[in-house]
Amino acid sequence: MALKPIELAAPGPVIPVIVIQRVDDALPLAEALLAGGVRVLEVTLRTPAALEAIRRIARELPEALVGAGTVRSVADAQAARDAGARFAVSPGYTSEIGRACRQIELPLLPGVATPSEVLAATADGYDFLKFFPAAAAGGIPMLKALAGPFPDVAFCPTGGLTPENARQYLALPNVKVCGGSWLSPQATIDAGDWAQITRLARAAQALRED
Predict the structure, then answer these.
(1) Is 117 a catalytic site residue?
(2) pTM for this model (two decimals)
(3) DSSP 107-165
(4) Catalytic residue among 7, 42, 63, 164
(5) Going by C-beta distance under 8 Å and a sequence separation of 6 or more, which residues neighbour residue 182?
(6) What's the rounded mean pLDDT across residues 167-171?
């Protein structure tokens, strides 16, 4: 049975937004994040290595919930599903992508930045949404404003979040989890410093604590 998108929020307060340049980095990176308590992994479809990285993580590390980010088309969604992605994340929303993900039973976390986009996504049955790009689209004040007309919608703010401001976002009642690229810095991946990745993951997990 497919995950419900809101279930992606349960394992931890931060979903890492991952860019993988080299396929061989996929497994050690995923293992390092898992060692730090982070189970939900969003591998963005921004590089040629992404789909094979998803495939390897899905096959070798079933305890991880690996999904595809930067899903911009029906073809992207299908390719992600075929690679073993357990969910998809899109930077924006179209009904075409929403329908396609339902048809192939790929849970979707759709991106929105405005009330009109929230209306479009909720009209298609999506009520857990990625708020992107969070900082540029109004940040915490915008999320507070959206809570009024959309009290039944939950958000995953992504874009411009840091270890320093993530806790403020997570304190909002309509924020269930946030997305962050700081858990997998490219320089740290390039250096193969997997212990540092694990430390970053543990620190992110601690953001849930009061």
Answers:
(1) no
(2) 0.97
(3) -EE-EE-SHHHHHHHHHTT--EEEETTTTTTTHHHHHHHHHTT-TT-EEEEBSS--TTT
(4) 42
(5) 161, 162, 163, 200, 204
(6) 97
